[in-house]
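Posting here for the record, re: zinc ion.
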Amino acid sequence: MARNTAARNEAQRVLLEVGITEPPVRLSILADYYVFKIEMEDWPEKYEGKLERDNRIIRVNRNHFRAKQRFTIAHEFGHYFLHRTGDFFDDGQQDRKRDQEKEANAFAAELLMPYEWVRHDYETITDPNELARKYEVSKQAMWYCLMELNLIR
Ligand SMILES: [Zn+2]
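Prediction output follows.
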């Protein structure tokens, strides 16, 4: 839990640094700011994304739906900011580094759906699907966020 707090804090720091203040978080702005290229790859379904740190490239599966791609890109940025060395290939078997994967997921969740923004928006938008559209995340991801905030059960 404490590790996830650190990951979430780091995502907030990044949003602040780049100057992103509202949803949907534009990952292209983030990529430009940190001089990263995002490349779409024609990969098998199980491959999600890859961080090539020194090449400053994040690769993502072009065959996944957009909201999933966004979460993957945010996840790879999580590896970049939280795990300071090496490349990461999320190839569907990444449970061997489970803590790092959880941290990257917490970073991605906070980057795309900061708790504070969602809590605020939920005061006027209580339909999870509408919130998902507003944040350009999957319905599943938004449901999970709302559950974590104890707003739905
Ligand atoms: Zn990963």
